[in-house]
Known about the structure:
The protein is mainly beta and 323 residues long. Helix content is 6%, strand content 41%. 43% of the residues are buried. Beta-L-arabinofuranose (FUB) is lined by residues 33-34, 49, 60, 96-97, 112, 163-164, 210-211, 262, 264.
Amino acid sequence: MKIKMIIILMLLIVGTQHQLNAQNPIIKHIFTADPAPIVYKNTVYLYAGHDTASVRDKNYKMPDWHVFSSKDMVNWKDHGALLSPKTFSWATGDAYAAQCIEYKDKFYWFVSTFHKNDINSRGGAAIGVAVSDSPIGPFTDAIGKALVTNEMTTDMKHAWDDIDPTVFVDDDGQVYLFWGNGSCKWVKLKNNMTELDGPISAFKPQNYIEGPWVYKRNGHYYLVYAGAGTKPEIIAYCMAEKPEGPWIYKGIIQGNVLNSFTTHPGIVDFKGKSYFFYHNGALPTGGSYRRSICIDYMYYNADGTIQKVIETTNGVAAVKNNK
Length: 323
Ligand code: FUB
């Protein structure tokens, strides 16, 4: 009897310890999706979508985008809903995936939302850009119109093709915008960040669905994205020697996530470690329209290829050197 009691007590202690260590999901007071982290001045800023659908809803309700910041990857401050489709006079509907980057001391927040009035009157998805002098705003519409609209892309199949922008500045200063559902589209941007600089191209990496994330690390270019192969979504990636491609498929780095049919990659290096942001439906009452952002470690092989990312409840440890 005594031994039984001791075992139960030990299990309880281990269980509680596990709960205390559980960092994932990293934001617990609201539902968040489509993570886009950047590192700026010793701090990680996380730009995120905001799910507000009820448990019964069968579609997204995403009224705005929030910004969070952290100096240690564990304690996240919510700076609030700093941008919404209402900021853009031409936009209506949901606040889909977005990414903010710093360029020449300004912060450009590229967003996907929907157009009130595109040529086809389909309320098609469109990409806009907001600008600010600070990572936490205030943000205003940088051009007063959409940067990319549904009718500008030749392979348009659905009204939601033009979602999920990711922006990348190469070492020579050339800016690239990638985006797209169904196919991955890209175009050069002028260095004012608000004008296209050439024709739009489209291609379809293996398994590609949406959510591209483009970056360069140790001389390799990466295109990480949400894909199918199995449904729900998985995360796959390609590598290239230049942003124009050709992009070579390298495989799946994360399988289906807990309780959500979408997932979405966001990747940064911070203080010597690589971090993989994604979303799942792991919070109580969570699901595909009530998602939550998580972080797990990411590891590269010597040749630059990416190891499989393990979805964990523990998440990542607090960064110690957080001066
Ligand atoms: O959050 C709305 C949409 O779901 C995003 O734009 C896609 O990437 C998927 O996560």
